[in-house]
């Protein structure tokens, strides 16, 4: 099982709305994440907009590719893109660059 952690930056003026959107994630988005191998997926948001994502999956590349193949993910990413800083034209899911794990207490 791979443990994956990534960082993104939510725009300061959109933090409250971003929290609201994630309090009611579309059921079809939740189903797609589960079906494509995203497990123990969590998002943590600091008050300054730093977003920390964590998930576990058998194969992160396959999990990302599986989501890219879904229609619901295309809609979700388009809706979420305006909430983020520094995407440089990428969708939010394309900007998720895994951090290197340097320690894990098993």
From TrEMBL:
Gene3D superfamilies from the UniProt entry: 3.30.70.100
Pfam families referenced in this protein's UniProt entry, alphabetically: rhaM
PANTHER family: L-RHAMNOSE MUTAROTASE
Record-given protein name: L-rhamnose mutarotase
């Amino acid at each position: 099982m791979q443990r994956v952690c990534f960082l993104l930056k939510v725009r300061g003026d959109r933090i409250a709305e971003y929290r609201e959107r994630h309090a009611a994630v579309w059921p079809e988005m939740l189903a797609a994440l589960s079906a494509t191998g995203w497990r123990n997926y969590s998002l943590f948001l600091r008050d300054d907009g730093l977003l920390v994502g964590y998930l576990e999956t058998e194969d992160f590349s396959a999990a990302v590719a599986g989501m890219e193949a879904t229609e619901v993910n295309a809609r979700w990413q388009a809706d979420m893109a305006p909430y983020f800083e520094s995407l440089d034209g990428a969708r939010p899911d394309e900007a998720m660059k895994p951090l290197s794990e340097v320690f894990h207490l098993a």
